[in-house]
C-alpha cells in the first residue's frame, strides 16, 4: 500500500477531525493535535465497534509508536470517550509530545445480552489487528504498541499483553494481521478470577464472586467453570518472556481490592517475568481518596504511566523525535 505523505495525511485528518469534533461536541474532547474519531474497526452483527485516534500535535515520526487505551466499566459500561477525559487525557498528552499516536477503543459490553468477558478480550485484540492492517494509513509502527487500561480495561490490557492472541480469533477480515504489544499498563485491574479471596472486601455491596456471570453467563462459580475463569485471569497467562507489565493499585480500593497486584507480582518474581508494581497509598478506585491524600498523587501517577510507555521504545530512538 502506498503511504500518504505526512502533509497529505495531515490535511485529510484535519478536515475529518473538524467534522468529527463538531459531530461529537458532547464528548468534550480537547486535543491540540489532529484526531480521527469514531473509526469503525469491526462489525459484529449489526453493531459497529469504533475507535478514536489522537495524533501528536507535531513531530510525528513516519512510523509512530502507539499508546492503546482500553476503558473500564466492569465489562458492562463505559466507552472510548474516556480517553479524552481529564483522568486519562494527560497521559495521552505526555506521550504525544514524544511522537506517540494514541488510540481509545470501544468494545462489546456485557449487559445480560449474551456478551461475555471473552468477547471483550477478542474485540480489544481485533482493535490491535485493525491497527496492524492499517498501519500505513495512520503512519504507525505496529511493532511498537503499548497497551493500557483501567479497572476492567486494566484486566483487558493485561490480557492483550500476556495472552496468546491465537486463542482469541475475531473478525475473519483481520485474521491475517498479527500483533503483540511491547508492554502493558494496568490501573487497578483484576489479575485472577479463580481466587475469590482476592475480591473480598468490607464493602457490603461487593460480592466476592460478582463477576462470574460476566465470565460464563451463570453464577455457578469457579468450581463449575474452571477453564473459563482461568482463561480470563492474567495470572494464568504470564510467562518469563512476557512483555513488561506495570501495575498501579490503590491500597484502599474496595472495587478491585489491593491484593490483586501483589498476587500477580509474586508469581512474576517467582518465574522471572518483568513486572513493576506501584502501590498508591490512601487511594481507592479511580484514585479517589481513601483515608488521606493519595501518594503518589494523580499527576504523578499519570507521569509514571506515560514514562513507562515511553521507556518501552527507547531501544528505537529514531522513532522518538525531539521537541524543537
Automatic annotation (TrEMBL):
Keyword annotations for this protein, in alphabetical order, are: Hydrolase, Signal
Tell me which Pfam families the record gives: BD-FAE (PF20434)
BD-FAE-like domain residues are 51-267
Check the record and name the SUPFAM superfamilies matching this protein: alpha/beta-Hydrolases
Q: Where is the signal peptide?
A: 1-23
Q: Name one GO molecular function term.
A: triacylglycerol lipase activity
> Which family does the similarity line name?
Belongs to the 'GDXG' lipolytic enzyme family.
Q: What is this protein called?
A: Alpha/beta hydrolase
Organism equals Haloferula rosea
Amino acid at each position: 500500500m502506498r503511504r500518504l505523505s505526512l502533509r497529505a495525511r495531515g490535511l485529510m485528518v484535519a478536515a475529518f477531525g473538524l467534522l468529527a469534533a463538531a459531530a461529537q461536541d458532547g464528548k468534550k474532547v480537547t486535543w491540540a493535535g489532529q484526531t480521527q474519531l469514531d473509526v469503525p474497526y469491526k462489525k459484529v452483527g449489526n453493531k459497529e465497534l469504533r475507535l478514536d485516534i489522537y495524533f501528536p500535535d507535531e513531530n510525528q515520526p513516519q512510523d509512530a509508536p502507539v499508546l492503546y487505551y482500553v476503558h473500564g466499566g466492569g465489562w458492562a459500561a463505559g466507552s472510548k470517550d474516556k480517553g479524552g477525559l481529564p483522568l486519562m487525557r494527560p497521559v495521552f498528552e505526555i506521550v504525544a509530545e514524544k511522537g506517540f499516536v494514541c488510540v481509545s477503543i470501544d468494545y462489546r459490553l456485557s449487559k445480560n445480552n449474551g456478551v461475555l468477558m471473552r468477547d471483550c478480550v477478542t474485540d480489544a485484540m481485533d482493535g490491535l489487528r485493525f491497527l496492524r492492517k492499517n498501519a500505513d494509513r495512520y503512519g504507525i509502527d505496529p511493532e511498537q504498541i503499548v497497551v493500557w487500561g483501567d479497572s476492567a480495561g486494566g484486566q483487558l490490557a493485561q490480557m492483550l499483553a500476556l495472552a496468546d492472541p491465537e486463542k482469541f480469533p475475531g473478525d475473519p477480515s483481520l485474521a491475517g494481521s498479527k500483533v503483540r504489544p511491547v508492554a502493558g499498563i494496568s490501573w487497578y485491574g483484576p489479575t485472577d478470577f479463580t481466587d475469590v479471596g482476592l475480591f473480598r472486601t468490607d464493602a457490603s455491596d461487593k460480592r466476592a464472586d460478582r463477576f462470574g456471570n460476566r465470565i460464563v453467563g451463570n453464577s455457578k462459580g469457579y468450581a463449575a467453570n474452571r477453564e473459563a475463569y482461568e482463561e480470563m485471569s492474567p495470572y494464568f497467562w504470564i510467562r518469563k518472556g512476557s512483555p513488561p507489565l506495570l501495575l498501579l493499585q490503590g491500597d484502599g480500593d474496595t472495587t478491585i481490592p489491593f491484593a490483586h497486584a501483589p498476587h500477580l507480582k509474586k508469581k512474576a518474581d517467582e518465574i522471572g517475568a518483568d513486572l513493576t508494581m506501584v502501590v498508591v497509598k490512601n487511594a481507592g478506585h479511580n484514585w479517589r481518596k481513601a483515608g488521606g491524600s493519595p501518594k503518589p498523587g494523580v499527576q504523578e501517577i499519570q507521569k509514571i504511566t506515560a514514562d513507562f510507555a515511553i521507556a518501552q521504545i527507547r531501544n528505537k530512538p529514531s522513532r522518538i523525535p525531539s521537541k524543537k
